[in-house]
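Lecture 7 notes: from sequence to structure.

We start with a single chain of 229 residues. Read the sequence below before looking at the structure.
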Amino acid sequence: MHDTETTGARLRVLRRWRGMTLTELAGLAGVSVSFLSMVEHGQRMLDRRSHIAAVASALKVSETELVGGPHLSPDRLQSDPHMGIPPLRVALQTNTLTSPAVDRARPVQELADEMADSIWPLRRACDYVQIGHLLPPLIDELHLHVAQPADEFSHRLALETLVEACGCASAMAKSLNYMDLAYLAALRGEDAEVLAPWPSPRHPARQCARIGLTARRPTPPTRRRRPRD
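Now the structure, written as tokens:
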């Protein structure tokens, strides 16, 4: 039987990431609002198979991601790194290079700097808790810049940074043993790579796209800045 507090917290994270209210999720899943509220607060178990399947389907995640597996233990050091997997999966599944899932984004240079200055150091430190907080929204926003670039430089920078982000997503998923997600992230990176005008065959971002599925040591991305006029 799964821990009620952990399952409830996971449900709340997934629901908020999907931007749903309790009422909206309850309507899609065919359960009562009060039932979902009690599950989120650890007052009820989510243990009936039909409920698990309905809620997971409404959230567009797997049943395992909703109720967890062996990693969902009271030990926060063991369970917390896995909390970033559902939103990461949502980001990779709901975005395409022509149809982003969000309609607002920070400046693309700010996103590239976050990738280089924050996420890459966290990747080297294997801090998957913080990566799980930063990477999904970064992937969302980069897709918006790829689909609706302000200019050629922004388009190129968004593509290169997206390949790096997908490579890190693939590596994180592989390390946590979500091999299907690691493969999906690598494919998303390769999709962006096809459109990116790489300056050389061994550009760091090109290597990064395959980190999650190979044993190659990750190479930090080269910082890129808009050229001065």
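The chain has a mean pLDDT of 83. Keep this in mind for problem set 3.
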